[in-house]
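Students often ask why we bother predicting the structure of a whole assembly rather than each chain alone. The short answer is interfaces. A chain on its own may look different once its partners are present, and contacts between molecules only exist in the joint model. In this exercise we take two input lines together and write out one structure for the complete complex. Read the inputs first and try to guess which parts will touch.
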Amino acid sequence: MTHPPNGTPDPKDEIEVLLRETLRDDLPAEVEARLERRVQKFMASRADFRRRSGPGLLTSILWAPSRRLVAAAASLLLACGFGLQARTGADGVAESLSDVSATVSLSRAIRAASSMTCKGLDAELASPAALADRIYRRWVLVRSRAHADGTVVHEFRAQDERALYQLVSTDTSRPPSEIRKIPLANATRNEGTRRGYVATCTWEVPPAGTPGIVFMMGR
Amino acid sequence: MTSMTTGPGASTALARASFVALWAIVLVAFAFLAPSAPVGGFLFELLGVTAVSLMAFAAHELRRAARTSAIFWEGAARNAWMVGALAALLFFVRALGDSSREMAQVARDTALAFLPAVYGLALAGLCAVRALRLRTAGAEAPREETAGVSPSDHWLGAALFVVLVVWTVVRSPLGGAWRFAPWEMLLHWPAVLVVAGAAVLVAMIAGAELRGRIGVAALALAGALASLGGLVLVLLGFADQNLPRVVSGLSSILTACFVALAGMLAIANPIEDRRMRQGGSPFPINRTAWILFPVATLFFLVIVLVLAMTPMRQQM
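Now the answer. The structure tokens for the assembled complex follow.
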């Protein structure tokens, strides 16, 4: 401790002495050792970081511009992504969703009809509910083709018999005016499956304004 | 001398080998015996959570961590919830992409795809309760746990997670042909750019202090941004009766959710776990992000389901 030349103790030194006496370093040895270990671990991690970062000068030169570069690249990615988001997705996905949409649409349109009259159709398909049920639950849409005259042909594969069914509509939202059954080449098990036909249908559709939920849930 | 150097290494290798063997057996069961969501979703959940846990806890630590570490169980709760949402997303796309099903079965499978999210939530609840019990009991992580996980275990966990996800999107449920391959819908590259760009930008803006801490939140924000962009595109597509645009929008939504969730699980969560093990404090915005983003993903899936089943005329 130093004193000024006139012998009066400096107040700052007195405070320092007081602080030292009050805050004596009386940590238990175990705690002190633990703190020491943590300090060493921290220092080691910093040294490890520096070692991995390469020469300090090179890092400091490259890092500042690279941050700007990364930010610019990220902004560019973001802008390009948003700009190109409308880019057409995969054709397979579009076809699949289109098939889902067509199946649901056709099934609903048929279920919504009050009655149907078909010449030459199987008895088990001769009601709107039965036909809609077949389309929704047991047939798989293979392809849809739109013709120049506005007609649409939906081709379904029946899961429970070796046959294809073609439903010809004037519009995708209207029930089919013609239903064709085409047996597949190896459909030889029974006579019913092998017999193909073309049935023409007329439909009685309820007036507009019937609640949509009725169409969806059936009647 | 020999026993001192080979003993711990051998036990670590043994623990790792046992883990991988068990994991592979469950993967085979998932891939070949349980392709559907009700059972397959549960197995996916188990496989996903264990693979992701390995990225933050070494294989030989898992048993002890399960007994004593609240951090382990908190991480497991978070991972379970997020893996559940990811599984729901993957099973949903698989159901849409399978060509061999009739419409009723497709609709049923897309509805059942949400089941893994239920499993995830239930498992997350159990893990959270376990973590809470350990916290309440004042259990501290053993000192050895503060050491970082070895790179081999980290990369092994990452590899197992990638194998699980890739297998799920590559193989159709019954091994038949796809109507469309799921990765066509899950990797719509403009949405990948948006998620990557936005996440990096958020991290840059956050600054050096926060950069390593807000990975989860940045990815969640980026994913939500890209998903909402996709949603706008879908609505525009419906307004214009433009099916390709609707498809692009739907692909963007699913891709954004997939990339953000996978990024959080494979990159951001392990970083967060390791930070916590080294004595870091929890970061509230990350917790909010991992709770809310899976909810947003499920919400977007419901929207996609409704829109996919909504008939519209195609104008190519």
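Check your guess against this: Residues 187-316 of chain B form one domain.
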